[in-house]
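Explain my protein.
***
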Amino acid sequence: MKSDLESEKRSMQRIWKQRDKQIDKVTTNTIDMYGSIKGIAGNAIQSVKALELPSADEDKNE
């Protein structure tokens, strides 16, 4: 049973690591795409708060 458990644990860790890499790739590609569109369209597109740096006012409130 111990061997089976260790094997399952290694398998799940491998799966989690793969999923973590996929999430990192999606996040990076989304940020890159947003930056490219923002560079082309400028202020014509709405800002995405999660992808922008906090303003000085927001820093003071936290």
Observations:
- The radius of gyration is 20 Å.
- Residues 2-41 form the longest helix (40 residues).
